[in-house]
């Protein structure tokens, strides 16, 4: 494949490209799901292809092909140059890239048990055990369980002489119990909703999740929610469970710090950001106990945003984003970093597949742990709602006004977790919310959650991102507004 | 690019390597290009070519799918073997149906060669004109101009042969002024119908008119939803019309069939053959799509049924199934809603106090049975008083039951093909809706 990719780069050079990079990707996926005691989906896929990105006449072009012959790769390169020259019709200035070193390297992501080596029948047996536990509980009307494995083998080469091979495995699993009764549909999910937990590792993730052991509790909660009181509405304190806080970080910190949004590149679809350039190093984004990093390095953990090099060949980095509450860093590309005078990209350019251009994407955007134990935090709380497991999420296109719903809530009264509540929701304005954070749990309760379904770009690209979070408390938050009609 | 001859060849190879009881092949190709602009310059510009083969094997009441875009003989053999091996690992499902035999399809011509072949220079020259239009008013333009062609074939070992090809195109544009914004979008099988400069003019006018937006109190307002806003809301109900969703009690229409759920003026159908619609005349199993009246005079009259759902529920298949195997069953994907005789201008003139909504954003389901949706207004939200647009307002968050909304429709325009960003294209009217619930505002 290397020879074909190099041939494409040479074709691009001959046609007039002043810079080119090519990615050859081989992506394998296995998806298995069960529903109400039966296998629902068992499928595998493989997608291979080459994408070539060029600068010619000072503008960008990109073309891709699934046909990995030299002739097709060269044709894609020629097409990319033709497209770049068309882009140049509308350029205001030549593309300028922040400097980067040539790299020749190989990297293999963490994976102890190759999930593709685990027999499908073993996976199905485990899922059907979960299913049986869920269906055993009266009131559960739908039991769904899924496992999702991905193996990504990628070669990146560039006209700078870089040559980087990265191989990684991603594993995800989760289930939900749905209960319909009267005029209400309630659902509980484990270990997270919308697919469960995802990480860049192997089947060992699934072995650690205790899927079967948690199933009776999840099913019982789903059925019990119907009889619970509605979550009250008003301004009150809340404690967010780790997975919900992970999504809160994703939407109200991760997206605003993407520099392409800030610069207007996403104005037509994904939107822009309130984090305009003058706010860097000045904005008090959050309370002083809040520290957030965007960390793609392996030392941060096996998140969906963990890699060795991004799709521009920039090494993985740990970028401080919020330090002691102050906003201090963006996620950037070589082009966007140069455009705001930064010396180097933060290494956040990632493409969904060989047929898509890399965009600035979150890596692992994580809230660093505090030092509370959850039981101490609850004991320290007079009156609040503990909210767990996302049910709905929405935020405006500049990332100020958000609203989340969760599957379940618990009332906290006089330092004790008391009755279960249904249909919890909360909302607010990003910086006001983060400035109200007054307690964060410690490393023992910190999990690197995976969000496998982050959408951005035109054409739309779906990307996996990581978000480390531990439960945290927020004061005087607007609660229950979703149901105030 | 896929054509019938190539589809025949690939299927014959798959059939040669398959030892399954029954074999189905989905073969699909994409040739697609998209020119993207922002800050009055083209900043992303791409093209892709892909062709893949997806084989479903059925073995002793068990089924599985394997897909590849490597189409040499060895890879085709491997994908067939993978599908069979995955199928054999499952427990038999005695309710599983045999694959359908040959079907007859109504002809649907949706491929324009010029759109399929439109080149990057032609797209860039159009974008250049749009940027010049923006700069005339000191505005900043962002958007996309895409074109291409998709083709798909579904063949099976029982003689089913379905083939469809379609050209695709899209132009969307956001115009930004210092404190305002406007948006417009159109999609279609022929790029010649997109009218990019007309869309740019519309977005520019909204961007200028929404400058210095004022903050208004959240609460219940009469709203005028342009067709893009209507379709993005309605899209959250597509899966609810699936028979399997009702059978499994995950639909908001569970227990509401044949009941008057919506206002008496609401008529919703599914019609892939409508001239403003898109897509193939067959579903994911190759069953011909039928026109279905979903809602008549506010009553939920019919659902849609994939073949296996229809069998379970004692109904006839309507041709709305997703490719097998899947969890979801089916959904109507070609919504055509009836409208009225009003125009947006008449809706504005008849409104004493209300809001005009151009576009909605980040809509999500808050409650699956009450069908409460939340989301934001975006790129052109205007306050109306005494029958006239007065000024732009800061964007608002809504928490609104879609069921309730469709009981509060006072006026509708003629339906038109609409495109948004939260759902698939539909043919829907603009609507004037009373008592639409806004719960908070944002900063811009």
Structure, described:
The complex is a heterodimer of chains A (485) and B (444). With 485 residues, chain A is α+β, with helices and mostly antiparallel strands. Helix content of chain A is 21%, strand content 40%. Chain A has ten helices and 24 strands. In chain A, strands 1, 2, 3, 4, 5, 6, 7 and 8 form an eight-stranded mixed beta sheet that branches. Chain A has a five-stranded mixed barrel with strand order 10-17-18-20-24. Chain A is globular, with a radius of gyration of 23 Å. The mean pLDDT of chain B is 98. The longest helix of chain B is centred in the N-terminal third of the chain and has 17 residues, at 120-136. The chains are: A alpha+beta (485), B alpha+beta (444).
Q: What are the SSEs and their pairings?
A:
The complex is a heterodimer of chains A (485) and B (444).
Chain A: H1 2-15, E1 17-35, E2 38-56, E3 59-65, H2 70-87, E4 104-108, H3 120-136, E5 142-158, E6 163-181, E7 184-190, E8 197-199, H4 204-208, H5 211-224, E9 229-230, E10 234-240, H6 242-254, H7 259-262, E11 292-295, E12 318-323, E13 326-327, H8 334-339, E14 349-350, E15 359-360, E16 365-367, H9 374-379, E17 383-395, E18 401-413, E19 416-422, E20 425-429, H10 430-435, E21 437-440, E22 447-456, E23 461-469, E24 472-479
Parallel strand pairs in A: 4-6, 9-19, 10-17
Antiparallel strand pairs in A: 1-2, 1-5, 2-3, 5-6, 6-7, 6-8, 10-24, 11-12, 11-16, 12-13, 14-15, 17-18, 18-19, 18-20, 20-24, 21-24, 22-23
Helix pairs in contact in A: 1-2, 3-5
Chain B: H1 4-17, E1 22-38, E2 41-59, E3 62-68, H2 73-88, H3 113-117, H4 120-136, E4 140-156, E5 161-176, E6 181-188, H5 196-209, E7 220-225, H6 227-234, H7 243-247, E8 268-270, E9 292-296, E10 299-300, H8 307-313, E11 335-337, H9 344-349, E12 353-367, E13 372-385, E14 388-392, E15 396-401, H10 402-405, E16 409-412, E17 416-418, E18 426-428, E19 431-441
Parallel strand pairs in B: 7-12
Antiparallel strand pairs in B: 1-2, 1-4, 2-3, 4-5, 5-6, 7-19, 8-9, 8-11, 9-10, 12-13, 13-14, 13-15, 15-19, 16-19, 17-18
């Amino acid at each position: 494949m290397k020879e074909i990719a190099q041939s494409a780069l040479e074709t691009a050079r001959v046609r007039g490209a002043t810079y080119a990079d090519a990615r050859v990707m081989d992506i394998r996926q296995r998806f298995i799901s069960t529903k109400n005691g039966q296998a629902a989906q068992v499928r595998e896929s493989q997608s291979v292809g080459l994408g070539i990105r060029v600068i010619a006449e000072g503008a960008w072009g990109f073309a891709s092909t699934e046909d990995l012959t030299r002739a097709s790769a060269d044709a894609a390169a020629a097409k990319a140059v033709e497209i770049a020259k068309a882009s140049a019709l509308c350029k205001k200035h030549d593309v300028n890239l922040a400097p980067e070193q040539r790299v020749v390297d190989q990297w293999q992501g963490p994976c102890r048990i190759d999930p593709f080596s685990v027999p499908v029948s073993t996976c199905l047996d485990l899922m059907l055990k979960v299913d049986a536990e869920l269906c055993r509980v009266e009131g559960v009307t739908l039991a769904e369980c899924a496992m999702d494995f991905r193996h990504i083998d990628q070669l990146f080469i560039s006209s700078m002489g870089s040559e980087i091979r990265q191989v990684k495995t991603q594993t995800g699993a989760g289930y939900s119990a749905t209960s319909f009764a009267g005029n209400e549909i309630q659902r509980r999910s484990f270990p997270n909703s919308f697919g469960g937990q995802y990480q860049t590792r192997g089947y060992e993730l699934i072995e650690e999740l205790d899927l079967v052991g948690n199933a009776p509790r999840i099913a019982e909660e789903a059925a019990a929610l119907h009889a619970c009181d509605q979550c009250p509405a008003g301004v009150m304190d809340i404690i967010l469970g780790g997975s919900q806080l992970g999504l809160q970080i994703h939407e109200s910190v991760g997206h605003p710090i993407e520099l392409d949004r800030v610069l207007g590149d996403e104005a037509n679809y994904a939107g822009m950001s309130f984090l305009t350039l003058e706010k860097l190093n000045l904005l008090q984004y959050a309370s002083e106990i809040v520290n957030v990093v965007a960390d793609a390095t392996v030392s941060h953990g096996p998140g969906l945003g963990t890699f060795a090099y991004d799709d521009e060949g920039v090494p993985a980095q740990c970028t401080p984003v919020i330090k002691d509450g102050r906003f201090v860093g963006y996620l950037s590309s070589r082009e966007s970093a140069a455009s705001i005078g930064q010396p180097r990209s933060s290494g956040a350019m990632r493409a969904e597949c060989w047929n898509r251009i890399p965009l600035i994407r979150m890596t692992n955007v994580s809230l660093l742990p505090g030092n509370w134990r959850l039981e101490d935090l609850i004991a320290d709380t007079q009156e609040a709602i503990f909210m767990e497991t996302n049910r709905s999420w929405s935020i405006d296109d500049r990332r100020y006004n958000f609203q989340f719903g969760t599957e379940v809530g618990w009332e906290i009264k006089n330092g004790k977790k008391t009755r279960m509540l249904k249909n919890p929701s909360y909302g607010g304005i990003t910086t006001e919310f983060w400035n109200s954070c007054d307690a964060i749990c410690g490393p023992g309760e910190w999990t690197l959650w995976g969000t496998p379904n982050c959408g951005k770009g035109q054409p739309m690209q779906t990307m996996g991102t990581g978000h480390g979070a531990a439960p945290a408390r927020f004061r005087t938050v607007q609660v229950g507004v979703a149901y105030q009609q | 690019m896929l054509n019938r001859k190539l589809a025949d060849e690939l299927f014959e190879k798959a059939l040669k390597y398959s030892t399954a009881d029954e074999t189905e092949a989905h073969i699909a190709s994409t040739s697609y290009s998209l020119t993207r602009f922002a800050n009055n310059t083209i900043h992303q510009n791409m093209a892709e070519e892909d062709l893949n083969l997806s084989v479903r094997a059925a073995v002793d009441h068990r089924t599985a799918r394997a897909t590849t875009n490597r189409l040499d003989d060895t890879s085709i053999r491997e994908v067939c073997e993978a599908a069979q091996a995955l199928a054999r690992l499952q427990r038999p499902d005695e309710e599983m149906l045999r694959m359908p035999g040959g079907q007859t399809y109504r002809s649907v011509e949706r491929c324009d060669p010029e759109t399929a072949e439109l080149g990057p220079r032609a797209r860039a020259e159009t974008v250049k004109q749009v940027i010049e239009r923006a700069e005339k008013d000191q505005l900043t333009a962002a958007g996309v101009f895409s074109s291409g062609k998709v083709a798909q074939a579904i063949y099976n070992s029982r003689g089913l042969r379905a083939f469809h090809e379609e050209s695709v195109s899209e132009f969307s544009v956001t115009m930004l002024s210092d404190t305002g914004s406007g948006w417009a979008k159109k999609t279609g099988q022929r790029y010649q119908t997109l009218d990019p400069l007309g869309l740019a003019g519309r977005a520019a006018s909204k961007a200028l008119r929404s400058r210095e937006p004022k903050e208004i109190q959240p609460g219940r307002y009469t709203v005028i939803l342009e067709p893009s806003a209507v379709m993005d809301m309605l899209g959250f109900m597509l899966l609810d019309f699936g028979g399997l969703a009702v059978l499994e009690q995950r639909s908001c229409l569970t227990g509401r069939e044949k009941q008057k759920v919506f206002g008496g003026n609401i008529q919703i159908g599914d019609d892939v053959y409508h001239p403003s619609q898109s897509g193939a005349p067959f579903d994911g199993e190759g069953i011909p799509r039928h026109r279905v009246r979903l809602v008549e005079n506010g009553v939920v009259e019919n659902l849609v049924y994939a073949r296996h759902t229809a069998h379970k529920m004692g109904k006839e298949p309507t041709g709305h199934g997703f490719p097998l195997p899947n969890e979801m069953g089916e959904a109507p994907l070609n919504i055509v809603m009836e409208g009225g005789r009003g125009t947006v201008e008449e809706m504005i003139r008849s409104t004493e106090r209300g809001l005009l909504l151009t576009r909605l954003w980040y809509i999500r389901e808050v409650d699956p049975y009450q069908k409460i949706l939340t989301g934001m207004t975006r790129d052109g939200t205007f306050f109306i008083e005494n029958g006239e647009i007065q000024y732009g307002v800061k964007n608002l968050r809504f928490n609104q039951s879609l069921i309730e909304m469709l009981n509060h429709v006072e006026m509708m325009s003629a339906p038109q093909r609409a495109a948004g960003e939260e759902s698939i294209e539909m043919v829907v009217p603009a609507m004037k809706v009373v008592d639409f619930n806004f719960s908070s505002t944002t900063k811009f």
